[in-house]
Amino acid sequence: MLKMLALAALLTTAQAAPDPHLPKATTDTVAPVLPKGLQRAVLIVSKTNGWRHIEHIPHSNRVLADIVQGLGRTSYATENAAVFNDEQLRHFSVVVLNSASGAFLTPDQRAAFARFVARGGGVVALHAAGDDSHTDAWYSDTVIGTKFIGHPGGEDQFQRARLVVDRPDHPVMAGVRLPWTAVDEWYSFNANPAARGMTVLATLDEASYRPGAKLAMGTHPVIWTNPRTKGRVVYSALGHLPEAYDDPTYRRVLVNAIRWAGRP
Fold it and tell me: What pTM does this model have?
């Protein structure tokens, strides 16, 4: 009987174990202490109040820091959203949202972020930074420009697909070698962000993978910019798997995006 009770208790504990992909939402109110001397640095933020991409965030943070160093710049990585204040954001020229998810900004922090973009600060938003956990109207309109509706699941969650470079003349696409194929979790959206004024840089060839009838878009953007803001804003839906950040072609896109958003 005691063994059965112990087993039941163990099972209950196991069932109650928190899913690391779904951390408890937190609000940051105390700003971090920044290193001295930061000027026109790159802020890498992976705060997650929604789905946490534990598979790639640690690795992609390292890759992003390496990219920034290669550009001759300094990076600062944090999960403390209280860094979104006017005084501290003035130390940065670019904010990289590395699969930041959920309502991770307070209204005051969101307002500071909006002022950062309005005065010319750049944004590079990656993967889950464009999922449906983002409900703030300014963020949705400025960073995403459309609405995430899902991705293939089961055995089709990760598929190799062909990417089409729609704007080879754009600096973010400079040096991208074709043909370009990649294995990823391919996001679909309810509308082409071009309808909201975004400039689409790359799309998926839907004939090259299986999106499923409900997720097929026809024209299927995956990388775009927002030309309607003073700050340069780039969104890329790629990047669920850590291996994505080691792919030379995608790394080239990330290098270009951070350089371009930072206005050299």
Answer: 0.93
